[in-house]
């Protein structure tokens, strides 16, 4: 127990830092058991699992449900506070004096037929065990890379519904009402970087190399009055780019020069490729690359840096919006993108962050063979302020549950980095083989889970314990239940 005193003190300070994100104290007092319960619960059966693990008063279940629908907090405000807390830990990874942010989408299946924004989704996966179509939600996720030389995590800072929610965003008059999944995630990344006020490498996959995404970065840069985002991504297939135009003395100035099909350069410029030994995925490996700066995007013609990479038997074309970044650095940075896939795995298998069960009778019934467009159209036809209010409440509850799960996972990751030695020396956790000196989120959660009961009996100087104790059933009520 003594080994984890510092860990619990850090968790207490982190949770209490969210106090000013709630307009009512009583609402904040429910935030504490929710996040702690999501971190430590032993089953994943929705909100009731929090009540069971923390031994809360069963009569308070409906208060807990009301908390998720409360207007005393907002996801936007919690994201800003969460980002500032992460920054203050001093664990952000810097490369070339810039932090690393990773963005991607994730699809979560859901069975409820009256859950807001649930729709028919197509799964792009090479795994034959997965169905081609599912019913569920598309979430857009952002994470910051934290860690040290021993291990690095992608710490989730936000995960929000990005598809099927346009009618709700229009009812709320949200800034994201007209955004697609791509433009919204890029816009959220720009605003997160503005909160930090730090130069940021935004690393995303090929889906996000688009003219609307580049225009969104330009729009947010103009609003902020400063450029914080450098986008690094990969091109799709064989993209066409353009040389700088050679201006003639007559006629309208040309916007682009000769067209170049980048995929053909792997053969035509093979003798121009440079060989280098780089650290990729934690190992020194040899790659060949060829770099050139070209205009890209119809009607946009923005100057981008393209890096053609030949790695073993794989060819790919990396893209960067900053022409000053070295091509070798672009190659190394893009390998960080796969850390968000590991974060998704922990989020779904350890935290079970998509285990929400919020719905409303006012949501139009989702039928098995309804198309995605039909589902959104049915939602848009809902009229009446009471019906829309109920749907918005369920929508906010879903986003809140996922956001609280992001905080829970992030706290576990921060503890793993800051208190590696304390957690590895914890006597009640045995592993036959240690894959890394830094424990995983699952190991941290198991250590905290096993020490929590003793902590609740012996420690009286932690604020969150007093709050949880106030939510427990009186002894008399427990005896009545047992009788």
**Fraction of residues in H or I helices:** 40-55%
Count of strand segments? 13
Silhouette: globular
Report, as a whole number of angstroms, the end-to-end distance: 34 Å
> How many individual domains?
3
Percent of sequence in beta strands: 15-25%
C-alpha Rg, in Å? 25 Å
Decide which structural class fits the backbone. alpha+beta
Uncertain spans:
478-483
Q: What is the mean pLDDT?
A: 91
Helix-strand pattern: HHHHHEEEEEHHEHEEEHEEEEHHHHHHHH
Distinct helical segment count: 17
What are the main properties of this structure?
disordered C terminus, single chain, 483 residues, globular, 3 domains
Model description:
By secondary structure, this protein is of the alpha+beta class. The chain has three domains: 1-73 and 447-483, no CATH class; 77-235 and 319-418; 236-245 and 254-318, no CATH class. It has helices at residues 5-16, 25-40, 48-54, 61-68, 75-88, 166-171, 181-196, 211-224, 265-268, 327-334, 339-351, 372-380, 385-418, 420-424, 441-458, 463-470, 475-482, and strands at residues 94-95, 98-109, 119-122, 133-147, 152-161, 200-203, 229-234, 240-242, 259-261, 274-280, 283-296, 302-311, 314-320. Strands 1, 2, 3, 4, 5, 6, 7, 10, 11, 12 and 13 form an eleven-stranded mixed β-sheet that branches. A two-stranded antiparallel sheet has the order 8-9. Strand 1 and strand 2 form a beta hairpin. The longest helix has 34 residues, at 385-418. The two termini are 34 Å apart.
